[in-house]
């Protein structure tokens, strides 16, 4: 939930053009450039123009203007601090837009030092805002908060209230992630007060929208509607239609929560019309998904399919993996409701593949960051003065060898992982083709579930390999480096700095290795067992909108590892079904070990449904749950009816796992 809120805030507040606000500044800067001949002044104007155009022009335009400014300064005789600082700021911003955190932060720090030296405090404040946003996007909450509060002090020094409002909005984002909702609301209201006082109606519309989004996610729908309406009225009067499309989309979301589907379609279609006029392809795709999902809620599956297929077409064209994943999953659900389990299975497989690709991309990104840090150090080394001392050369060579070996080992592990997955996928494809001739489509869904279990085992094996083999190797390398540090004397400061930096990179590689291993296999489940992992799962889901409780009775000893993992996946799937469909506010999970069986009870106070065990058209998720339970020779019982909540009871015979427990 918190990530969803953050996404709305960042997209709306930071990256959408403020129509009409920068037009005058752009024209003035262009006119000045046509007249000015002084190199330093031209570099300053080019950087300012690039900054003003950052929200309305393609990346290549901003890159071209910045590079021209840098080139001019290299040849200029006199370089002012303002010119140097602005070029550093824009170079950092370019890396910021590409998600290259380390390079961006390096340029931002250099610009801050330059501006501080000449007391350009407003520019310092704006840099701390960018720095905080970059750290927040990377999940470093404490570091981003420190940057924002430092920026506020500079904004107070130069008395720029607009910057303070920007900081308050972003601090609210951090507070939401920390579940400090009352503090988040307080900061949002501070931002609104500043914008009202300043008469900055465009930014005021943004602040109102952010507060509306905040109330929407906390299910305070009336309050959310009021602030969305305020924001929409301002944007309508200013003619800022691109941003108005987001307000209309937000109002559509409120209508869906109220089950006012016709009203929701009205707002979504108005938003879609604006996005089509401004040719916002990704925005159009999101509107298609919202409209399709609303028709799905209305049980008009034919219309829902049309819009979701349009969404999928745009997502594939724009290579938006997250949106493509959502669309494929929804199409699978639509086909299930239409009774076409074959198509449902096909789309669910594609969804599975896309989700796996997203996970692989995250892994590759982590590795890329390690490589970028190494390349940065290498470039810094090349730019330093060549003091060719023997000790310095030896340390440099050894550092390169150690880092390359670490990167090579990680690459080999990833290549092996890819080959194993590909081999497994080929084998599963052959098995699937054979079974298609013998079994019905319902059995195919269970086969897919078995395939997913195989992937869980493979993930666990790879996670253990990364943690044990790779982790031990990196720890040993780190210990060797520390031992070298105790025995060597560094006659030159550059040698010590280079050695320490190499050691930091090795530590970072070990940290990244641990993160990948934990992402592939839940560490709490492996270390503390099923009861502790369920309590952790409940804590993650809890929010003001839904309360989740767990209770474990009689489970004195750990269950076998594979059984614990399977039961955890069963309960996780049931909880996901509740979050997607039940609209519940209370969920209770009980795990009870009797003399002859293990009993699992999952109940909620949601909308419920008519359950018929003879009906084979239930969702892929529920089919996966049933398949896993059948594997344990267990019993599955559903007690549910419309508006009376749902209780699911699962009984697993002890004979399924007691022999395995005895062996362990």
Shape: globular
What is the typical, i.e. mean, pLDDT?
80
Main beta sheet strand tally, sense and closure? 5 strands, mixed
Tally of separate helices: 26
Q: Output the strand order for the largest sheet.
A: 1-2-3-5-4
Report the C-alpha radius of gyration, rounded: 28 Å
Straight-line N-to-C gap: 39 Å
Task: Report on this structure.
The chain is mainly alpha-helical and 664 residues long. 76% of the residues lie in helices and 6% in strands. The chain has 26 helices and five strands. The chain has helices at residues 2-14, 23-35, 39-52, 59-75, 81-97, 101-117, 121-137, 141-158, 161-177, 181-198, 201-217, 221-238, 241-257, 261-277, 281-297, 301-317, 321-337, 341-383, 390-436, 441-487, 493-520, 523-528, 530-541, 561-582, 620-631, 658-663; strands spanning 547-553, 586-593, 597-604, 635-640, 646-653. A five-stranded mixed β-sheet has the order 1-2-3-5-4, covered by helices on one side. The longest helix is centred in the middle third of the chain and has 47 residues, at 390-436. The relative contact order is 0.04.
């Amino acid at each position: 939930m918190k990530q969803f809120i953050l996404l709305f805030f960042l997209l709306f507040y930071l990256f959408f053009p403020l129509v009409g606000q920068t037009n005058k500044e752009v024209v003035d800067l262009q006119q000045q450039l046509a007249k000015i001949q002084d190199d330093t002044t031209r570099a300053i104007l080019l950087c300012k123009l690039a900054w003003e155009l950052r929200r309305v022009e393609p990346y290549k335009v901003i890159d071209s203007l910045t590079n021209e400014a840098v080139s001019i300064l290299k040849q200029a005789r006199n370089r002012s601090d303002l010119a140097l600082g602005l070029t550093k700021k824009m170079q950092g911003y370019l890396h910021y837009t590409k998600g290259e955190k380390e390079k961006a932060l390096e340029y931002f720090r250099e610009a801050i030092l330059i501006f501080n030296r000449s007391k350009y405090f407003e520019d310092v404040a704006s840099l701390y805002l960018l720095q905080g946003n970059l750290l927040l996007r990377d999940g470093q909450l404490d570091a981003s908060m420190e940057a924002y509060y430092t920026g506020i002090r500079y904004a107070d020094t130069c008395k720029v209230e607009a910057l303070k409002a920007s900081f308050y909005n972003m601090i609210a984002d951090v507070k939401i992630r920390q579940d400090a909702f009352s503090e988040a609301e307080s900061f949002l209201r501070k931002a609104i007060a500043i914008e009202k006082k300043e008469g900055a109606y465009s930014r005021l519309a943004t602040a109102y929208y952010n507060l509306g989004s905040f109330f929407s996610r906390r299910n305070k729908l009336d309050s959310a509607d009021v602030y969305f309406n305020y924001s929409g009225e301002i944007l309508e009067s200013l003619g800022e239609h691109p941003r108005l499309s987001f307000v209309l989309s937000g109002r559509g979301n409120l209508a869906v929560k109220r089950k006012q589907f016709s009203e929701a379609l009205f707002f979504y279609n108005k938003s879609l019309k604006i996005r089509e006029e401004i040719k916002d392809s990704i925005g159009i795709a999101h509107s298609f998904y919202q409209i399709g999902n609303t028709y799905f809620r209305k049980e008009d599956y034919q219309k829902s399919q049309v819009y979701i297929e349009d969404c999928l077409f745009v997502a594939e064209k724009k290579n938006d993996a997250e949106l493509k994943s959502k669309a494929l999953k929804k199409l699978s659900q639509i086909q299930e409701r239409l009774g076409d389990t074959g198509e449902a299975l096909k789309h669910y497989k594609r969804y599975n593949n896309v989700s796996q690709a997203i996970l692989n991309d995250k892994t590759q990104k982590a590795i890329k960051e390690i490589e970028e840090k190494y390349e940065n150090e290498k470039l810094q080394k090349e730019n330093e003065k060549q003091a060719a001392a023997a000790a310095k050369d030896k340390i440099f060579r050894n550092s390169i060898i150690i880092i390359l070996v670490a990167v090579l080992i990680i690459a080999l592990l990833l290549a092996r992982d890819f080959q194993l997955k590909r081999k497994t996928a080929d084998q599963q494809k052959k098995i699937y083709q054979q079974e298609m001739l013998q079994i019905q489509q319902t059995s195919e869904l269970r086969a897919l579930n078995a395939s997913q279990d195989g992937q869980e085992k493979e993930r666990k094996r790879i996670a253990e390999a990364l943690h044990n083999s790779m982790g031990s190797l990196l720890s040993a390398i780190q210990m060797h480096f520390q031992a070298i540090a105790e025995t060597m004397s560094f006659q030159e400061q550059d040698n010590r700095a280079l050695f320490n930096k190499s050691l930091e990179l090795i530590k970072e590689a070990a940290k990244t290795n641990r993160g990948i291993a934990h992402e592939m296999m839940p560490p709490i489940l492996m270390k503390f067992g099923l009861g502790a992992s369920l309590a952790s799962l409940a804590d993650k889901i809890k929010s003001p909108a839904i309360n989740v409780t767990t209770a474990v009775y009689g489970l004195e000893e750990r269950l076998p590892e594979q059984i614990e993992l399977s039961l955890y996946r069963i309960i996780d799937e049931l909880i996901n079904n509740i979050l997607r469909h039940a609209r519940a506010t209370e969920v209770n999970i009980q795990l009870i070990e009797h003399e002859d069986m293990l009993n699992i009870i999952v109940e909620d106070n949601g909308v419920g449904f008519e359950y018929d065990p003879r009906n084979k058209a239930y969702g892929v998720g529920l089919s996966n749950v049933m398949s896993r339970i059948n594997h344990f020779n267990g019993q599955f019982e559903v007690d549910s009816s419309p508006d009376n909540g749902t209780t699911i009871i699962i009984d697993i015979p002890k004979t399924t796992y007691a022999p395995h427990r005895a062996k362990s």
